[in-house]
Amino acid sequence: MPGSKSAQPQPSSILLRGARLVLPERVTSPASLVVREGRIARIEEDVNKGTLQAEATFDLEGLTLFPGLIDLHIHGALGVDTMEADADDLRRVASYLAEGGVTGWLPTLVPAPAEDYTSAVRAVEQLMREQRELAATTATPETPTARALGLHYEGPFVSGDRCGALRTEHFRVFKGSADLDGLPILDLEGASHMMTLAPEIEGGIDLIRELRARGWIASIGHTSATPEQLERARDAGARHMTHFMNAMLPIHQRAPGPVGWGLVRDDVTCDIIADGQHSDPLMLQLVLRCKGAERVALISDAVAPAGLGDGDYTVWGETIGVRNGRTSNARGNIAGSVIHLRDAVRLLARLGVAQTELSAMAARNPARLLGLADECGTLETGKRADLVAFDDDYRPRLTLVGGRVAFDALS
Asked: In terms of DSSP H, where are the helices of 292-334?
């Protein structure tokens, strides 16, 4: 891994000195942060005190320290597709993510045959077990990777009218709990399970109720639902929307559809792909103006070609072309993105979005959606030391996962 120090023992405590810290409500002047036992132990805004000590010190002068980013929706990278990956493949993706400042992610699956789901979920489960074992081991030189926090099913209970790049032959309707029982889950305590669904399909509202009863996050997406159907979905427990505006019925002055409904519903959050391809920057600004940063999460929706550059690739059984950062399938549909989540942060920064709002959308809000807000997502004492130091162009210079160095490009 370029810039990594994986051959050296991990320090038990770390002093990060001289960075601007993006706290939940403000950005500090140059300050210091101490990490001990994997947690943020102290934040000191007077860098001249000189009383803070740790086993290892990193000088972050000129950099800005954010909480580690969390990607709720990612299908793969570096040629690895979560539908076909084994645990070693997923570990490569997790390392790639950590190099870009992502410290937590939800491997995301697309509609597929049952046997494909089973192998994909078992691979994610193996990765999570290995990551948890590493986190519980002290004095190891092994480099940590971005934590898999659970699983995101994008479909299969979605609308054929808004399929995007998903394969419609694997779409399903919901007729009862047995249809959900057939989807493999992670047999791990605390693992998050999220599903993107269209409430207007047969049994869609009942599916939402069943998901919520099982503790899943129900997110509305790939949908042509009417506001009336969406109200029923909200009442049933669906309070989030997947890649907002994309794979949804477009807004119209006499038919507001999912987009119009989502813009005015303050009790519904959404995530967006801020890659400059999926939505015009002006539309991103409209979403932020209507929803406020506190109700928006950034996602990459990255697919296997991410990190490989332009070319033609086989993804989900068809050829996906990547040209100048835009993906396209044979039907001309955008087929996911090839960005890193930091690229979305950079784009919105260039649109003038404040760093506290960027931090909320890329870390705090995803953590809150997953029920992890007490554990991570903000720079506060006692929280996990999942951290990333960016330069002024949002290039990562240092990433910590659970207080351990996952990426170091400072030297």
From this structure: none
Between helices 227-236 and 204-213, what is the axis angle to 10°? 20
Task: Read off the pLDDT of residues 1-60 as tens digits, 9 standing for 90 and up.
Answer: 334 444 578 888 999 999 999 999 999 999 999 999 999 999 999 766 667 888 999 999
- Non-local CB neighbours of 309 within 8 Å, separated by 6+ positions: 322
Backbone dihedral region for residue 280 (phi beyond 0: left; psi -120 to 50: alpha; all else: beta): beta
**Can you read off the two tokens belonging to residue 3?**
């810039």
> What is the SS3 assignment for 329?
coil
Segment 120-125 shows an average pLDDT of: 98
Positions marked active-site: 301
In tens, the pLDDT along 299-355 reads: 999 999 999 999 999 999 899 999 999 999 888 889 999 999 999 999 999 999 999
On whether the CB atoms of residues 227 and 261 are closer than 8 A, the answer is yes
The contacts of residue 69 (CB under 8 Å, 6+ apart) are 100, 101, 102, 103, 104, 298, 341, 342, 345, 362, 363, 388
Query: What whole-number distance in Å separates Cα of residue 96 and Cα of residue 89?
Result: 11
Token representation of residue 6:
């994986």
Question: Which phi and psi angles does 41 have, rounded to 5°?
Answer: -90, -30
